[in-house]
Write a structure and sequence with these properties.
Helix content: 40-55%
Structural class: alpha+beta
Strand content: 25-35%
Order of helices and strands: HEEEEEEEEHHHHEHHEHEE
CATH architecture of the largest domain: 2-Layer Sandwich
CATH superfamily of the largest domain: Band 7 domain
Number of domains: 4
Number of strands: 12
CATH topology of the largest domain: Tetrahydropterin Synthase, Chain A
Largest sheet: 4 strands, antiparallel
């Protein structure tokens, strides 16, 4: 009889130890380096735990939510929003954010990720309506920084901090794209004409200065004439007419200069007729 009692006692102890071991094991949780959890005891917030191995008291304690501290990304855009100058646009942006206060992220809002995404969408739409299309296209960085400040004001109560916001694309109607393309082309043509006119003005000033130099130089104009004839006579198919009455220069000298410059034809007018 005593042996039977010992058997049942041993069996009972084994069963109790087994359930006790299962009870303890069921409360063991392993959290990764970037994970945090909020522990509720009988429905009330107790503390934030993690990372590593933690133990949650079964029945009494409960993990409310698991939160990641890693940087998260969210791509969003506005559908056909109107700018300040009433231009329909689609703004495509991406937001980088992370949880900085786990307790607020769990207790202040039901699903912080959804709340942050909705806040980003509405803020982007509001910001788009306060700027013109030109500002939206040319001042993306400034608008993105302002957008980040506005979103941070909304999300700081949820324990979320925005790291950066980037405006990836601004889509405008095709008709407006064509008009902007024509406007850009007209602007490029205007700048080209302005540059050409400026170059012509500078060339005219240079020629005017050269004329003043030639006027005061006895042989300057003659030397310039020689240079022009030498350049022209380099073309073998070109006939160069060399007048014999060049001031201060004889016909033979002018003829020699022109013939040495190239193999082109040469005509020297005389008093009667033309000699080739």
């Amino acid at each position: 009889m005593q042996a039977i009692n010992m058997f049942f006692l041993t069996l009972t102890l084994i069963v109790v130890a087994f359930f006790l071991l299962m009870f303890v094991a069921s409360g063991i949780k392993v959290l990764k380096e970037w994970e945090r959890v909020a522990i509720l005891r009988l429905g009330k917030f107790r503390h934030i735990r993690g990372p590593g191995v933690i133990w949650v008291t079964p029945i009494l304690d409960k993990i409310a939510m698991k939160v990641s501290l890693r940087l998260q990304t969210y791509a969003f855009k506005t559908e056909r929003s109107l700018t300040k100058d009433n231009v329909p646009v689609v703004v495509d942006a991406v937001m980088y954010f992370r949880v900085i206060d786990v307790e607020k992220a769990i207790l202040s809002v039901e699903r912080y990720t959804v709340a942050v995404e909705l806040a980003a969408q509405t803020t982007l739409r509001e910001t788009t309506g306060k700027v013109t299309l030109d500002e939206l296209l040319s001042e993306r960085d400034a608008i993105a920084s302002h957008l980040q400040e506005l979103i941070d004001e909304k999300t700081e109560h949820w324990g979320v901090k925005t790291s950066a916001i980037e405006i990836r694309d601004v889509v405008i109607p095709s008709q407006l794209q064509d008009a902007m393309s024509r406007e850009a082309q007209a602007e490029r043509e205007r700048r080209a004409r302005k540059t050409l006119a400026q170059a012509e003005l500078e060339a005219a000033k240079a020629m005017e200065e050269a004329a003043e130099v030639y006027k005061d130089s006895k042989y300057g104009f003659v030397l310039r004439t020689w240079n022009i004839m030498a350049e022209l006579s380099k073309n073998a198919n070109l006939i160069v007419m060399v007048p014999t009455n060049i001031p201060e220069v004889g016909a033979a000298t002018a003829t020699s200069v022109a013939m040495q410059a190239g193999t082109g034809g040469l005509k020297v007018p005389k008093d009667k007729g033309t000699v080739e």
